[in-house]
Amino acid sequence: MEPILYMAPLQGVTNHVYRNAYSKEFFGYDLAVAPFIRSCEIRKSTKNPLRDILPERNCDRLKLVPQVLSNDPRTFILITQAIADLGYKTVNWNLGCPLSKIRNKKRGSGLLSEPEFIVDFLSQVVPRIPVSLSLKLRLGNETSNDILKLLPMIEGFALKEIIVHPRVGKEMYSYPADIETFSRCLELTEHRLIYNGDINSVETFNALKGRLSGVYGWMIGRGGIVNPFLPEEIKNLRVSTDNEKRHRFYSFLESVFLAYQQELSGPRHLMDKMKENWQWWSRAFVGGKQLFYQVSRIRKPDKYRAMVDNFFQQSPKLLI
Ligand SMILES: Cc1cc2nc3c(=O)[nH]c(=O)nc-3n(C[C@H](O)[C@H](O)[C@H](O)COP(=O)(O)O)c2cc1C
Fold first, then answer.
1. How far apart are CA 254 and CA 179, in angstroms?
2. Are 7 and 31 in contact (CB under 8 A)?
3. Ligand 1 near 288 CB (within 6 A)
4. Which of 234, 262, 277 is the last residue before a domain boundary?
5. How far does the centroid of ligand 1 lie from the alpha carbon of residue 201, in Å?
6. CA-nearest residue, atom 22 of ligand 1
7. Which helix or strand (DSSP H or E) is residue 69 part of?
8. Which atom of ligand 1 is nearest to the CA of 219?
9. For a Cys staple, 166 with which of 159, 162, 182, 316, CB 3.0–4.6 Å?
10. Does 305 lie in the same domain as 208?
């Protein structure tokens, strides 16, 4: 059976511009979780907090699940109602963000050391929202015992699924993912579990699949940004030659660039955004590191385009 694959949310990267350009050129994902929206933003009237997930800004080729970062049931319910009004059927609660400024304010993975708080939050929220709820967790805040304690406590809630990135918050992305503790999670819950972490090649995916039985789906983050062909390769949907890959990658980069050019105000914002993306894309090519360095210094969009065109005209070797 074909595996179920989710595009992971990466704040600043996998927004509507990325998702739309992605689904024009590549395929293989069954669903994307959008980068988080803070629930407290529903009370501010300056910018629409839902702008990234507005249906008119998102092509319907890729199913989308909005994500909310919150430690306040009241604003969570309010923002979820607004999300439901846009037509979405599922919302994801972010309990995984590892950034210290978020963890220290008892949000994201900072909440995982407080399972009673999470239970209380779910008791208030689940009966009051008009959509199904999924969770995205790390193993804990500082220790992976957090998830072992939490899972039995949330077993009775009607949750759509639980996505688990098997690291604790304080580790950020260092140390290997803790597959052992993830396997214990599979034994501890009847909820559908989605595995997320370090899937960066077909080989890693197959090894994880062989090791973990009972996983409902697989979420791919950084590996899928560096190698956008990965989902179709995992599903064996299409085999592209290196030339086709370069061509398809280039078309995708053009779409991202043109869409940001329309949306962002001024060349500085545009170039900052391209730089943010190139920190990942550069890893797909021999010579990508040097190109990233050059892109980081460039201020003029025309120069940027000429530089990228020149790079692709030289048929750079692929590392993916
Ligand atoms: C730059 C960046 C931004 C991220 N933003 C989010 C986010 O908005 N919401 C979220 O749940 N996870 C976020 N994550 C975590 C990823 O979704 C994913 O869980 C993590 O990268 C591990 O998966 P991977 O090893 O496949 O990349 C972010 C990660 C990175 C590197």
1. 38
2. yes
3. no
4. 234
5. 17
6. 197
7. strand 64-69
8. 26
9. 182
10. no
